[in-house]
Amino acid sequence: MLKVKFLRRIILASLTIAIVLPMYNIFFAYPSFIDELIDHTRYDATHTINHMISMHIINNPQFLKNEIIIDSAIINTFQEDRNLIKVKVFSAAGEIIYSSDDKNIGQINEKEYFREIVAKGGNYSQFVEKQTRSLEDELFDRDVVETYVPVMRDGSFLGAFEVYYDVTESKTSLDRLIFRSSSSLIAFSSGFILLIFIASFKATRNLADLKKKDSALQESEQRLKDISANSGEWVWEMDYDGKYTYTNPVVAEIMGYKPDEMLGKHFFDFYHPEDRGHIRHQAFEIFRMKEPFGEFISRNIHRDGEVVWLSTSGVTLLDKNGNNTGYRGAHINITDRKRFEKTIEQQITRLNALRSIEKAISSSLDLNDTLDI
Fold first, then answer.
1. Is the pTM of this model over 0.85?
2. Is residue 345 part of a domain?
3. Range of the domain at 259
4. Is 145 part of any domain?
């Protein structure tokens, strides 16, 4: 009797896992990964546009007045270096004044989202799956993220940049991974369910009144907050000792300090106390090489005490004799990316735990079959 009860519990738990695992993979894990891919791509696209706008401002002083000045060479450079398949620039009236596809020039965007969101200073993005229509009713043969970023000066809307960011390769890889994983789980589940029914037939022919006594595997998902669409680059200059001599206003958005509050402070003053010693040493070792550097990752403390992860790139400033006089570069806030990476690690840990449960149950069934013999 005890053996039958134990087997009934195993059968119920096994059926639950065999059904839940493929369903979890298809209906929960896959949409979650897709959402994270889209949010991460939106962040990259918005950062690209902000950087493109910054380069236009640097190269075109008139850009700061009352209209957008187009430098097609800058835009072409970005299209060559990044997964941008299309770039458009809109005037304040919504007219396309530049497009990598000439046939779009002169068209006017009269959509509500442009007037109510973009023209009022808000970013706007949408994922466009291949063979579906974009916000402007264009048909694409690739998966793209369509992103609008407004150009604002003193509260006035000057126009907007729009890019179509190609995510086909990333989404295809994710689709392939999920398909293989789901196929393996379904094949395993089918075989496992067959073994379960064979075992249940041997144990008892009447399990109609069996009550569920084993709790179903609980599902939980953790989603990242929306990645800030307006995250820009914190541009800075430092002297030889690593003291800030200039920072742009973006520092307030990233670290909570006004630019003048940063002057005279060492860059490592804002490092996390646990990292300050060895990260500071690594930074000065890089400085001593007198070569351009990038992707230098550091953990910093925001004014309110929060941790801020920064990716730093820059160059060493040299005098005419080749002596080091300071440094110039930019910090990029990658805190959301770090959180995303942590979430992926947690998802992988959960899947590994589920597979361990499957193996344990399979071993128990094998043991019962041996005892029956």
1. no
2. no
3. 233-333
4. yes
